[in-house]
Amino acid sequence: MLTSACPYHSYGYFHTMCPIQGRIWKISPQKENEKNNYIELKKTIQCMDKNNVQVLWRLSKAEYNMSLDENISKEKKKSLISSAHESIIKALSIDSNISEVHKWAAVLIDAYSNINLGVKEQLLKLETVKFHLQKALELNPKDPFLRYMIGYWSYNLADISWFRRKLGSILLGTEIPTSTYEEALEYFREAESIQPKFYCKNLLMLGKTFLKMDNKFSAEYYLKLVTQYPVKTVEDHQVNIKILILI
């Protein structure tokens, strides 16, 4: 999802897209048979060496994607995310020089903090999430999704107004990390230069970022590209609906 309640929305003063909401980090478009695929994958992986880092990060990915099933209970979702988080932390302890390990560490630290930690602790995890994304990018600079993810992280922090940021710091007793639309734009554009039109949401975020920067000409260009993007998944359809609101 592109919009979600911020973790400190419960205070009543904050209403913005949260940069650490687990669902925004979903990497692959959802397919109708994805649930069964991940269940089979998990069964296969569980029969393999649990101390193999390649097994561990794939297991954490499978469990995380299973947790996105809207039909499962909150308890099951929490159990899957906790198990996935445990697997990826173990993978990090075995080998911290693999890009996919850091990518999924960012995803799972985010998701785990959302369901297990308080608001202040969630905010403190923001920099940890970014660290793992940047480390993943350092290890695999050709992955456009990593640049999209860092760009999204930056966009949502830039989108927090001065008033909400100041009030949040007072209420929570901790500084909220900062970023700019310019920084977000740089990552989105770099992702697009690596693999043009690789992801409809990257095109959408380019359009939205240009709108925030009052560059309506460039914003219109990218938003129109989204409307021309082949609709193959539920996610693609949801993005097209959002475009109708923006254009």
UniProtKB/TrEMBL annotation:
InterPro entries associated with the record: RMD1-3_a_helical_rpt (IPR049039), TPR-like_helical_dom_sf (IPR011990)
Principal location class: cytoplasm
Compartment list: Cytoplasm, Cytoskeleton
GO (cellular component) term, any one: spindle microtubule
GO MF entries: microtubule binding
Entry keyword Cytoplasm: yes
SUPFAM superfamilies recorded: TPR-like
Keyword Repeat among UniProt keywords: yes
UniProt entry keywords in alphabetical sequence: Cytoplasm, Cytoskeleton, Repeat, TPR repeat
Subunit details: Interacts with microtubules.
This protein's name: Regulator of microtubule dynamics protein 1
